[in-house]
Specification:
Layout lengths: L1 H15 L1 H7 L1 H20 L7 H34 L3 H5 L5 H33 L10 H23 L5 H18 L11 H9 L1 H13 L1 H7 L5 H10 L4 E3 L2 E3 L1 H26 L1
Antiparallel strand pairs: 1-2
Length: 285
């Protein structure tokens, strides 16, 4: 019960701090602003005209938003851990009956909860927005798959963020790192600019970054219907070229990466960074 109470305490602290919630969504807000005022037109002009082009770009954009949200919100949630460490509140926790393992577990579960709820909220808002505009981007039959990818993305992002956070001892250092990471996230994940327009060495970096694989899985689900309309009469090569250029699928050493390999990559990332983080956290929390 103590880990439940501690998890609840962390979740309440995150949602009660409106500034923290805002800054954890800042990268998403910047992405939306860039897409509305700049990137949407630039990306559209860089593609040939074909049926459902607008719908495809909206779905591509939404996939990027969901992928980024999974990392920025968990980063914001783990800010409570850094703040507790900076203010030496863990000394008070040590005086209580709760064990160190339960403390770490409370931080992790609360970050997972925050990430999942914020991603799900983003998906619901997007669903309502597009339906009100008469541009249904999300089929109800796709919801279970989207929720599954959200869960996997949040798990992977939480593991990576926990590993990063374990190195910070002050709130100022954490805030600076959060700003830098939030700014770079869209580029590292190939979300601001389609991966096909990047030079080869940047494409390699994008393919290594786990959030890119979250974005790829979201794109495969969200863009499926629109791609069927867009490329119904087009050669297979044209469809494949579009998918590779927009990061729907990735190609490594000439081999097309199927969705299951992105899933395995996210699971592997989760396991590796969770183990590394727990080793570090045992010494620092």
């Amino acid at each position: 019960m103590m880990v439940v109470a501690f998890t609840k305490r962390n979740i309440l602290l995150y949602f009660r701090d409106k500034t923290s919630v805002f800054f954890s969504m800042l990268a998403v807000i910047i992405l939306i602003g860039l897409y509305v005022f700049f990137l949407g037109d630039v990306t559209s002009k860089g593609l040939p005209d074909f049926p459902s082009k607008k719908s495809l770009l909206h779905s591509w954009f939404l996939a990027g938003v969901l992928a980024i949200t999974s990392m920025t919100t968990t980063l914001g949630a783990f800010g409570i851990l850094v703040e507790d460490r900076a203010n030496k509140r863990y000394m008070d926790f040590y005086a209580s009956p709760i064990s160190r393992a339960k403390l770490v577990g409370g931080y992790i579960i609360s970050a997972l909860f925050v990430g999942f709820v914020m991603c799900l909220s983003t998906l619901i808002v997007a669903y309502v927005f597009f339906n009100l505009k008469g541009e249904s981007q999300i089929a109800l039959s796709h919801l279970p798959y989207l929720i599954g990818v959200i869960l996997l993305s949040v798990l992977s992002s939480s593991a990576i963020v926990l590993f990063i956070v374990s190195f910070f001892k002050t709130s100022n250092a954490f805030a600076a790192a959060s700003t830098v990471l939030g700014t770079l996230l869209g580029f590292l994940a190939g979300i601001y600019i389609p991966i096909g327009t990047l030079p080869d060495y940047l494409q390699t970096i994008v393919k290594l970054f786990p959030v890119s694989h979250s974005a790829s899985l979201f794109r495969q689900i969200l863009m499926e219907s629109a791609m069927l309309d867009a490329f119904a009469q087009a050669p297979i090569d044209m469809k494949e070229s579009f998918q590779l250029g927009m990061g729907v699928h990735y190609r490594v050493d000439g081999v097309l990466i199927q969705s299951r390999w992105s899933v395995y990559y996210l699971i592997g990332t989760t396991i590796v960074f969770s183990c590394l983080s727990l080793i570090l956290m045992r010494k620092k929390v």
